Amino acid sequence: MHKLMKTLFAGTAVMAAALTAPAAIADPAHNVILVHGAFADGSGWKGVYDRLKAKGYKVSIVQEPETSEEEDVQAVERAIALQDGPVVLVGHSYGGQIISEAGNDPKVTALVYVAAAVPDVGESLADLFKRTPPPTADFFKPTGDGFLILDRAKFHAGFAADLPAAQAEFMSDSQVLMAAKVLETKTKIAAWKTKPSYGIVPQQDRVASPDLQRFMYKRANAKITEVPGASHVVYISHPDKVAAVIEEAASR
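Structure (tokenized):
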């Protein structure tokens, strides 16, 4: 009996220690997936990519087709499935809506929104723009076959004001057209409700109002970083600042 009591007391002590011990900290994410926004492609991430690779991160860049929100989310989900561990998802502009849905994957440990849309469930990009209209008026032009293009005459000042004119002209001439129906597509999942989030506000954004970004980021309880003088393509013009926020998200 004495031996049995000792065994029971020992087991109870081990259980109590387990219950009071601090929770194990998850391993930092070493995988980063970068998701571009509308009218752009993944090549704009080169500066951020180089900085993260130099720090030892495994970086993947998604080339989503912009043909529908569903297909764009599937492209990111495909990239997540290829990763070998925890993932930080990074979305620029419309890419924010994409990572809000794809970010529900259990591999995703944090979300980084870069001048990005952060819609709630049942909310679309059009709903957000109605709430706070884009600073550049009449920027989106229909092509006549269900797609949109950004007005080339307004592209430099409206989309990439802090880039050299020649670079902005190249981006304008190499636009990836977005299906118009994407603007009206309602968000089905808001992963930011359960995942740690970070938001970057370029203070001179002429595509998505900085005030709208702040509203969305605060609603998502995101840690906000403001970048003075930056345009909508802050990830191109200020890759150091964007990479630093991603590193912070990965190390949590």
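DSSP finds ten helices and nine strands in the chain. The two ends are 49 Å apart (CA to CA).
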